[in-house]
Design brief:
It is built from 33 helices and 46 strands. It is of the alpha+beta class. The strands form 14 sheets. Strands 12-16-17-15-13-14 form a six-stranded mixed sheet, with helices on both faces. The longest helix is centred in the middle third of the chain and has 29 residues. It is globular. It starts with a strand and ends with a strand.
């Protein structure tokens, strides 16, 4: 044992201890350095024993044990309770069917599927076991922060990091969620540590671990590309800084390199600016017209591509010049001894082959083309990039490169081929992740705003780490700690007085003495600022060995240069990574909630550094002697009282406003808060008046962090264990509800009661496939019928469907099934954060009601005040919007046996059909399925012309069909054109629903999804169209118009379905008037579709979702319409796209309307009295989705069957 000691007055200043043991096995030692500026371990409060009778149990060890125990508890407690969400299903099911699993970039990398399959193998398949890998990694993150990051955060900082990672709402939630995010957080926290570790001592083993972590990230998710880009940018800046601080033998080359770096930065900014301007549209005056179509062309600030090409070319030239001056002036050998250069080079040669998708995309090919030719093409590019990588790696460091390639590609191949069972997975892995990511850049996932992370997710959940980053930045700036001493993260790096000489050049080294094969600095007199330095033989290998052979001469093995760095950019790296992650995922990510985890992790480490600094730079013993305990109690009292004081002044009921109970309570709250603020403030002032400002500021910041930590823990607990299955939290985009798990439990109960196992026949549709794809995995008689509803479903005792199939399932279940409604899924209400502007935010903050509502939303996730203040009633769990529902149907012969469902064993009374006595059976006299050379495709409305001929809106063929009175084809016109793709000329249609004929024979068409009305001659010649109109002095337009009718004066009545109104025009499209708005009261409308007129000008409207027909009557001017009567219709119950009924009046004034849901035609008199109906299952001729209807001159009724794609003519009584 060798000891070097030096005493100053009464304290130990410097102790270095080196233990020498067997060197038969290769071992290394970290430098043992203790400085007088830091308290020794035994004197630290963390080293004090908790119990005198158990000295080994120190405060630090107890805290570590408590943090780890709480972490394990919070990760595993009730882990399987939450219903599997939509995103989890995409991972748990393929892992369950692991024998058929092949990598698919849509569901990210293969690592998680292997981890899940192993968990199923060990613990069986369940919600709990599916989340075990995430929980284990969630624990590993905390443990790594405590033990590994202690080196760079300090002892207190590492404990704080572990605590913050334990209580982080996002880290906790996704440690209990089956997605890749928590794995990536682990790879990321280890990556940052390894970067610092290699920069510190340059050992090659850290490079190998870095390769391993990078490989694991690349087999996990495509966020690896973002992490690599962040690392390369930081290392490049660090490298440039380091190179410029070192000695160059050629100072002219150094100057040229500096200029080239500046020019590169300038050109990058210029190129980015040109790119943005090249893609920024602008309105040119006059408009530039397309010479072929005459349509106005979209113009940009910079229309030509030449400026962009020139700026890119100049940027490349400047970069090439910078590299040339660097290699020429500084030298390859010198560069190879820079650790930042090693890290840059290693990252580049590893990921270069994985950029195969990029040149393919630039060459115009689809990187995700997995055909035989596509794989060959990708393989050629991959091999070329791999060869470049090999050459660069061998030139850099042959041994390290070859080992790194073996580690990286060994992991890559094993996972992407699913342990060599699917070779095509390897080729998909090469191009899939990056190729899919590039293809998704044009897809707005969730359409979240750019500020989604910075002003929504972080303030809602990760406010404490964000505050810590700001504090750390201020401390680093003030104390110059962005580059800290390698032995103490809170001591500024020593500033060299002279320019640093390069390692490859001759330099003065400390005198060393070899002791038992270990090099140790000789005992020499030291000053107070000196250190004891111990360097092992392994860490300092000396000059490179003589290389033998031509291969070694070309591709050298660069030895480790084990000199310990004197400075480390710890804080700089953490602050950079926090800010860059926020920018990267805001700009390049899909802006979904789970990515907040990757922003949170570096912020927590940065915050922990800041708190560690504050704690370790306080003289706690002096503070306690100066009534510090009282101060620590008074600070939170002052903060809370002051907050309450401000809240009472800014709240909805300010003090001293009146004498009623609420106002008196507000006044008393204000007075008590004022007393608390003044009392605690005066007490604090009295106690700390002799304290230094620094000490009090540090203590105040620590107290504020403590309060934020309490609220953070509360936020995390509520998100993970209270609101985990509902939409009050914003951590998940698509929430599955607790109801869906309840239905699964009910189905299992029924099945086991009837059969003793899970063999019951259960059918479900495409809507509830998520989560039933997972929960029905072991039901042998399950049937996913997608959208194919047939009578065969009546063989299934249990049927579960989503909203889109409510109407289709009704004819199947009829009165033979009991119906149960459930909430299936809900999404965050994006109105909370969409379309923010500075003006809007300022206006909201100036409103006391809205301020209070926002506070309640943030602090308690209480949406009640917000719903009132922002006029959004859809914010209770019962009325939440957006959401979706599901229905479970249980056949009555089965349900009667199950008492638990609250169903009497006696048969329930059947539902009374109000139309049963008037139901007749009619056979169509004519059935037409084709017109011209095309069969009908979802025909909708029909109209009868003055000459008796018929017109049909053939919606999915995007055409209008003209038939003679007997149904014989005359002509057709139309063609597909979608306004979403650009301007659509007249004559082209997009799912026309409505058609009518004026007294002059002109044909009026509701071009529904182009949101316009078009007018044609009877021969199909386009005449005019309109989509917008001036309504009362402002520009207005349609949204999904469906019904249309023309009166005797050629006035055009349009049911503007999407805007819940009827709009009236003259024949030229000039606006006349409108009536109706959303609601249930008389005169209000909800999804109006069918429309017709009687001889007196009264308007009859199918008010679909109010389940009624309303009759409106005009006043003498014809400008005002009022509802004069209505009658309810026992139909139209679903809100499906096909449930859009039309109606028509016959010559006797009877109202004949369609029931698309049940395939029926219902006849009422003009006063709403039911007369008769036909259709449905009981009809002799099966009718499905009956949509349009028109009356021929002889009284025959024509209807359209949009599911059977046919027209039917009936002769009615």
């Amino acid at each position: 044992m060798v000891l070097a000691c030096r005493f100053y007055s009464d304290k130990v200043c410097l102790i270095g201890i080196l233990l020498i043991w067997n060197l038969d096995t290769e071992r290394t030692m970290d430098l043992a350095i203790f400085t007088a500026k830091n308290t020794t371990h035994r004197d630290s409060w963390l080293d004090k024993p908790v119990f005198t009778w158990w000295p080994a149990l120190t405060i630090e060890k107890l805290l570590i044990i408590l943090i780890l125990m709480l972490t394990i508890f919070t990760r595993f407690y009730n882990l399987g309770a939450r219903t599997m969400s939509h995103d989890e299903i995409n991972h748990v099911v393929p892992a369950y069917n692991f024998n058929t699993y092949v990598y698919d970039p849509v569901t990210h990398g293969p690592f998680q599927f292997h981890a899940l399959a192993f968990s199923y193998f060990m613990f069986g398949d369940s919600d709990f076991s599916a989340r075990i890998p995430a929980a284990i990694f969630g624990i590993a993150i905390v443990a790594f922060a405590i033990f590994a990051w202690r080196r760079y955060l300090g002892r207190v900082g590492s404990l704080v990091a572990g605590t913050l990672l334990m209580i982080s709402p996002y880290i906790l939630f996704y440690s209990r969620y089956t997605r890749n995010e928590v794995f990536i957080v682990f790879w990321g926290i280890v990556l940052l540590w390894l970067l610092l570790r290699y920069l510190e001592d340059g050992k090659h083993k850290w490079l190998y671990w870095l390769v391993f972590i990078t490989a694991m990230h690349y087999v996990d998710k495509a966020t690896s590309f973002i992490f690599s880009a962040e690392a390369l940018i930081f290392l490049a800046l660090l490298f440039i800084s380091e190179v410029l601080r070192r000695h160059w033998s050629n100072q002219g080359a150094k100057t040229r390199f500096q200029l080239a770096v500046v020019a590169t930065l300038v050109m990058l900014v210029v190129t980015m600016g040109v790119y943005v301007l090249h893609n920024t549209p602008t309105a040119s005056q006059p408009a530039i017209l397309d010479p072929n179509t005459g349509a106005p062309l979209e113009t940009f600030v910079i229309n030509s591509s030449i400026p962009l090409i020139l700026s890119l070319g100049l940027t490349v030239m400047v970069v090439v010049f910078a590299l040339y001056t660097l290699f020429k002036g500084y030298g390859w050998k010198n560069l190879s001894h820079l650790r930042s250069f090693d890290l840059i080079w290693l990252q580049l040669i590893l990921i270069l082959p994985l950029l195969t998708a990029l040149p393919l995309k630039l060459l115009g090919f689809d990187p995700t083309d997995y055909s035989q030719f596509g794989i060959i093409r990708s393989g050629i590019v991959f091999v070329l990039l791999l060869l470049i990588s090999v050459v660069l790696g061998m030139l850099w460091n042959r041994k390290v490169f070859l080992r790194s390639m073996a580690i990286f590609w060994g992991i890559f191949i094993v996972f992407y081929t699913t342990v060599f069972s699917h070779g095509d997975g390897f080729f998909k892995g090469i191009v899939g992740a990056l190729g899919y990511w590039m293809s998704q850049q044009a897809v707005e996932r969730g359409t979240q705003p750019l500020y989604y992370y910075a002003f929504v997710q972080v303030p809602m959940y990760e406010y404490l780490p964000a505050f810590g980053v700001v504090v750390a930045f201020v401390i680093g700036l003030k104390k110059q700690l962005f580059f800290a001493h390698s032995e103490d993260p809170f001591t500024p790096a020593p500033k060299p007085e002279v320019e640093i000489e390069d390692l490859a050049q001759e330099e003065l080294l400390p005198e060393v003495v070899l002791v038992d094969e270990i090099e140790i600095i000789a005992e020499i007199p030291v000053t107070e600022d000196d250190e004891a330095l111990i360097i092992s033989e392994e860490l300092r290998e000396g000059e490179p060995e003589v290389l033998m052979g031509w291969l070694q001469k070309i591709f050298p093995d660069v030895p480790e240069l084990g000199e310990k760095a004197t400075e480390l950019p710890t804080l700089l790296l953490l602050v950079y990574w926090s800010v860059m992650s926020l920018l990267a995922f805001s700009l390049a990510g899909e802006r979904m909630p789970w990515l907040t985890t990757h922003i949170t992790m570096p912020m927590i480490l940065t915050c922990a550094w800041a708190v560690g600094y504050l704690v370790e730079h306080l003289d706690w013993q002096s503070i306690w002697q100066k009534k510090g305990l009282i101060v620590t109690v008074l600070i939170p009292i002052f903060v809370i009282a002051f907050g309450s004081l401000v809240g009472s002044l800014l709240g909805t009921t300010p003090p001293f406003q009146g004498k009623d109970l609420a106002q008196l309570q507000a006044t008393s709250t204000f007075l008590l808060s004022l007393i608390g603020t003044l009392g605690s403030g005066i007490a604090l002032f009295y106690i700390v008046k002799n304290w230094s400002a620094r000490t009090f500021t540090h203590l105040l910041l620590i107290g504020f962090v403590g309060l934020l930590a309490i609220q953070t823990a509360r936020t995390a607990w509520r998100a993970a264990f209270i609101d985990y299955d509902n939409a009050r939290e914003l951590l998940v985009y698509a929430h599955s509800t607790e109801d869906m798990k309840s239905t699964v439990e009910q189905i299992e109960t029924i099945s086991k009661r009837l059969y003793g196992d899970k063999s019951i026949k259960i059918a479900y549709d495409n809507d509830v496939r998520y989560p039933y794809w997972w929960y029905m995995r072991d039901y042998p008689n399950k049937y996913d019928f997608n959208t194919e509803v047939t009578k065969s479903l009546q063989d299934y005792p249990i049927i579960v469907v989503g909203t889109s199939n409510y109407a289709r399932i009704e004819p199947v279940v009829r009165d033979d099934y009991y119906q149960y409604d459930y909430k299936r899924m809900w999404w965050p209400n994006e109105e909370l954060y969409r379309n923010w502007t500075v003006k809007r935010v300022w206006s909201d903050l100036n409103s006391p009601a809205k301020r209070s509502a926002l506070w309640q939303l943030w602090f308690n996730r209480d949406y009640r005040e917000y719903a009132v203040a922002f006029n959004n009633p859809g914010l209770t769990l019962a009325t939440w919007s957006p959401s979706d529902t599901a229905r479970m149907f249980i056949r009555k012969d089965v349900a009667a046996k199950i008492w638990e469902f609250g169903i009497s064993p006696e048969p329930a009374a059947p539902k009374v059909d109000p139309y049963a006595e008037g139901t007749i059976s009619l056979e169509p006299q004519t059935v037409i399925s084709a017109a011209g050379e095309m069969v009908f495709s979802a025909p909708r409305d029909m109209a009868t012309a003055p000459d008796g001929s018929l017109y049909v809106a053939d919606s999915l063929n995007h055409r209008i069909v003209h038939l003679d009175p007997n149904g014989l084809f005359l002509n057709a016109w139309g063609g597909y054109g979608n306004v979403l793709d650009g301007e659509v000329p007249g004559g082209l249609l997009n799912e026309p629903w409505g058609v009518s004929v004026g007294p002059d024979g002109m044909v009026y068409v509701a071009d529904t999804w182009n949101h316009r009305i078009q007018v044609f001659t009877s021969e199909g010649l386009f005449v005019r169209m309109w989509s917008t109109f001036n309504a009362g002095g402002f520009e207005d337009g349609f949204w999904g118009p469906r019904g249309i009718v023309v009166d005797a004066q050629n006035r055009v009545y349009v049911t503007d379905t999407g805007k819940q109104r009827v709009v009236i025009f003259d024949s030229m499209g000039n606006y006349f008037t409108q009536f109706g708005s959303l609601g249930m009261d008389l005169g209000k409308l909800d999804e109006p579709v069918g429309i017709d007129l009687d001889a007196d000008g009264r308007v009859y409207i199918a008010d679909t979702w109010n389940y009624r027909v309303q009759v409106f009557e005009p006043d003498e001017s014809g400008l005002q319409f009022r509802a004069v009567s209505f009658w309810e219709v026992d139909a139209w119950q679903s809100q499906s796209l096909d449930n859009k009924p039309f109606l028509a009046l016959d010559q006797n004034g009877r109202v004949i309307l369609t029931d698309p849901d049940r395939g029926r035609v219902i006849v009422f008199d003009q006063n709403g009295q039911f007369e008769f109906l036909w259709g449905g299952f009981d009809n002799s001729y099966t009718m499905t989705t009956i949509s349009g209807v028109t009356i021929a001159f002889n009284g025959d009724v024509w209807v359209t069957d949009s599911t059977n794609n046919s027209l039917l003519k009936f002769v009615v009584p």
